[in-house]
Amino acid sequence: MAFKDDNNTVFEDSIQTSDTKEIKFSLLENRRTGQLRVNIREFTHTDTYDGPTKNGMTLRTDNVEDVEKLQKIFNDFFEGAKKFF
Question: What is the C-alpha to C-alpha distance for residues 7 and 72, in angstroms, rounded to an integer?
């Protein structure tokens, strides 16, 4: 089955990073198991290709506490990364 056949996007946001690149942040629900996952994926939009790249990650989430932990580590990471600019 195709990825879209197995997964339902329940929430999504995105940020345009260039004229042809976009990063999508999605909360996905597996249609068979009900499992929720956070998916962060880069997409390319050009004349020859419109779709996801290999750049990205999927993180399992079982509850709101998992989402809060991910939020904290991402916030901590980006605060630390700012120091190098």
Answer: 26
Contact 29, 35 (CB under 8 A): yes
Domain ranges of the chain: 3-82
> Tokens in use for 85?
């600019």
Q: Answer yes or no: is pLDDT of 1 > 70.
A: no
22 or 2, which is more confident? 22
Homologous superfamily (CATH) for 3-82: Transcriptional Coactivator Pc4; Chain A (2.30.31.10)
pLDDT tens per residue, range 66-79: 999 999 999 999 99
Between CA 24 and CA 83 the distance in angstroms is: 25
Q: Is the pLDDT assigned to residue 21 strictly greater than 90?
A: yes
Give me 6's structure tokens. 């197995």
* DSSP-derived secondary structure letter, 47: S
